[in-house]
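Quick log. Single chain, no ligands specified.
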Amino acid sequence: MAKATKHNTESAQADSVVLTKAQLHVAVGVIIRENQVLLSLRSKKQHQGGKWEFPGGKVEANETVYHALTRELKEELAITVVAASPFMQQAYSYPERDVLLDIYLVTDFSGQPEGLEGQPLQWVSFEQLSSLNFPEANLAIVEKLQQQFL
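-> predicted structure:
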């Protein structure tokens, strides 16, 4: 497992992927506690709605991925990231948009996670991940987590 750092502003990989059509750059947090991962259920009104996801959100212009991650997790879950490290980067093309996910392992945080936007949350084991319905862009994350932690 990668050693968590107190602050890391680098992307999950040195080689950045360039997107071309409607593009969305997302900072994603794989939040780990006691061999479980925190998941959030996407609203049915959202793209890929009704599916479980790893929490996170859009990287704004002139914002580092790490800053976007900490901001989004505070806004969505009421937690403060204490330690996170780059895990992987995943580019995926849906028919309507391209997404670039910069995924971090969040191994320490303060606060009690709650769905501040009304979204249901659940802690699941690494084994349970493959039985849940995720957006297609998240499947590579599930696979890598299971390879690394099972």
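Helices lie at 65-77, 139-149.
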